[in-house]
Design goal:
FAD/NAD(P)-binding domain, 8-stranded mixed sheet, 425 residues, 12 helices, binds flavin-adenine dinucleotide, alpha/beta, single chain, globular
Length: 425
């Protein structure tokens, strides 16, 4: 088994997109070459701004090229809690944005004409306990009544039409949800941005941000570049001290995936009929899908830590696969890998500008494929002067007292979440 990402092994970073020399100035410097940074740069370039993207490592080394590739509807907090916090109008705007995020990814792929295996395949969220069925039905009815959004609650034989497993009590199918190949999406975006004349400078870690009047000076591993604006798009990889105000809003969390050997096609057709994408309704959730070459790609968060031993992770995933699909018990794994996403204290993504004038968009939880596309594009419009408002701008960005970006509470939170999962709360 390799400790390597299945996606980027199959779609390696294309040659000739990144450059090595750092220009001396730009209208906007974007820090981080994941989906957030690339979509912001795309929008800014379309608005006629000169943009430079600086990336600490290489294209594809953040979370954006290596994830589950699921584009799901909605936001992490429940619509009830959002309505209570912000009222119905803001909640409606956020809801609409979450749907537009999925559509936007498809539109960008079409407009820029690259292939990312975008499929409107539908997603099924899987509930373990019969006791959750009633609230799943009520939630589905509310979504239909309040937002006109259709989901179907499946149980028994109906559930068997989407998954060949007896582990789950019910599933909630959303035909709206989509899947991409994340490596193709990340690299396709990078090529589209490079085609617009944006230099993407690799091995160019930003080490300090300074301001003199209206000018920003960005100190990097390759020298200093000056710009009118700076956009921080570093999400789960945001360094501790670069922009403390942003780091205090996010908690980096590990997420991990494995790929199995190719599985006999008839068996896979029985286990995943309809080729949907799946996630389980737990805090320590699993997510899975079929690959184009008939593997099971299976992911999850066995713990909140971003630094787990990958061999342990693989063993745990293999057991989870066997529990869900007994026919695959002990299935050979070929790849294991992991990356970092960023959670926030209110479970919403955060877009804003610090007191020091640094723009940022971070904190998508496990929903970053669509939302990073949306917030990156929104940030590009704001920075480029094409918009002065957007659904995520102006939302409060909570942190916690004494939190300076070192998540000392993760082990305790992990124990709590595991116990809540165990008792089905
Ligand atoms: C295993 C895994 C599975 C996931 N599955 C899904 C899924 O199925 N669906 C979904 O919606 N979301 C999923 N996510 C979350 C999703 O991948 C992220 O939310 C999204 O990719 C965030 O994009 P981003 O561009 O903001 O950050 P990233 O793609 O993480 O990019 C941030 C970049 O910033 C760079 N950087 C950091 N510091 C500096 C610095 N000082 N100077 C320069 N560059 C710097 C990093 O090197 C990195 O390349 C998953 C995440 C993981 C790890």
């Amino acid at each position: 088994m390799k400790t390597a990402c299945y996606w980027t092994e199959n779609t390696p970073k294309p040659a000739g997109i990144a450059v090595s020399a750092l220009p001396s100035e730009a209208d906007v410097v974007v820090i981080g070459a994941g989906v957030t940074g690339l979509t912001a740069a795309r929008r800014l370039a379309d608005l006629g701004k000169s943009v430079v993207i600086v990336e600490a490592r290489e294209l594809g080394d953040g979370a954006s090229a290596i994830n589950g590739g699921q584009l799901n509807y909605g936001l992490k907090p429940s619509l009830k809690s959002l309505t209570k916090r912000f009222g119905p109008d803001v909640t409606r705007e956020l809801w609409d944005a979450s749907l537009d995020a999925v559509d936007l990814a498809g539109r960008i792929i079409d407009e820029d004409g690259f292939d990312a295996d975008f499929r409107r395949c539908g997603a099924v969220s899987l509930g373990y306990r019969q006791s959750g069925l009633e609230s799943a039905r009520a939630e589905s009815a509310d979504l239909q009544a309040d937002f006109g959004f259709e989901t179907t609650v499946l149980e028994g034989d109906d559930l068997r039409t989407v998954i060949g497993s007896d582990t789950f009590a019910y599933g909630v199918l959303s035909e709206f949800d989509a899947a991409v190949d994340p490596a193709k999406y990340n690299f396709g975006l990078a090529a589209a941005v490079a085609d617009r004349g944006v230099p993407i400078v690799e091995h160019c870690e930003v080490r300090g941000l300074y301001q003199a009047g209206d000018v920003h000076f960005i100190a990097t591993a390759k020298g200093t570049i000056r710009s009118d604006d700076v956009f921080l798009a570093t999400n789960g990889y945001t360094p501790q001290d670069l922009v403390p105000e942003v780091r205090r809003q996010i908690v980096p969390i590990g997420s991990y995936m494995v790929a199995t050997v190719p599985i006999e096609r008839n068996l896979l057709d029985r286990l995943l009929p309809g080729n949907r994408i799946f996630w389980t309704q737990r805090r320590f959730l699993n997510y899975f899908r079929r690959s184009a070459d008939d593997r099971l790609l299976f992911g999850g968060r066995p713990d909140l830590s971003p630094d787990l031993d990958l061999a342990d992770v693989a063993r745990g995933m293999q057991e989870s696969i066997g529990r869900i699909f007994p026919e695959l018990a002990g299935v050979e794994l070929t790849h294991v890998w992991g990356g970092k996403l960023a959670a926030t204290f209110d479970l919403l993504p955060h877009l804003g500008r610090t007191d020091g004038g640094v723009w940022y968009a971070v904190g998508y939880g496990g929903h970053g494929m669509g939302l990073a596309t949306y917030l990156g594009t929104e940030a590009g419009g704001l920075i480029g002067g094409a918009a002065d408002d957007g659904p995520f701008l102006g939302l409060p960005h909570p942190t916690r007292p004494y939190y300076r970006g070192n998540p000392w509470f993760l082990p305790a939170a992990g124990v709590l979440f595991r116990n809540l999962d165990r008792i089905g709360r």
